[in-house]
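Exercise: predict the fold of this chain.
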Amino acid sequence: MNSRHATLAVLLFSLALVSSQALAADKPPADPASDPVMVTSGFLSGHPDLRFRLLALQKRSEGKMEAAFGFFQRAAYYGDKPSAGMVAEMLWDGTGTSKDRASAYAWMDLAAERGYEGFLDLRERYWAKLDEAERKQAIIVGQDIYARYGDAVALPRIATALRMERRRMTGSRTGFSANLQIIVPTPGGGTEMIEGSKFYDERYWDPVQYQQWHDAIWSKPRVARVDIGQVTQLPQEDLNTRIPKVEPAPDTMEPEPTDEMPVLHDGGRP
């Protein structure tokens, strides 16, 4: 395993499906990741960002770096910023793909789009190491990456996925009830009963609250490359992207469909 992006990968393993502190005053239902049945029997079907991130981490742990690179890109298609950061790291190192430092910078800029501090710091460290030609190329390729993967197109994609899966599940049109039992499919072709208050926690299905949940997890964690040094506090002027605003490309082809699910062990970790 390449140690140059080990720190970020470890954070992805530990935070792939963990929740932050409660976003509301009342204590929220337990994190779905604590129940492997929920994760494998329906939750990930409606959360392609997390599903593809977990698949990428699984492939990476198996040494299948090209497959991992592809799944990280697919997670980023649905707005997963940590996965965009891993695409950047793999491009920077040439792991699972050709080495391309200009594209790596553009992907790390995308990972930092929401102002997550760890990714902002990595972005600036990348920029400092690029030569002038690479910097110009990064700005060019970055515009295409933002058009296809930026929040302007990615957030509507994940919002659609959340709403479609919630509507599809039994009981989703009947109104919420604390005693509601949700019937979800299991990998073996059967069904499983899940407590409605747990499965339908608004943090995991309402697009706005779902985004707030991710922001609470990733806004502060410090991710740093082991070969670059300690993370520093960035001045306000360094928080803005260098890549010009572009028109979003909502017609970007969706990743090829796959029924593959990550193999989960130890309460939800791949």
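Check your answer against the key: The longest strand covers residues 181-185.
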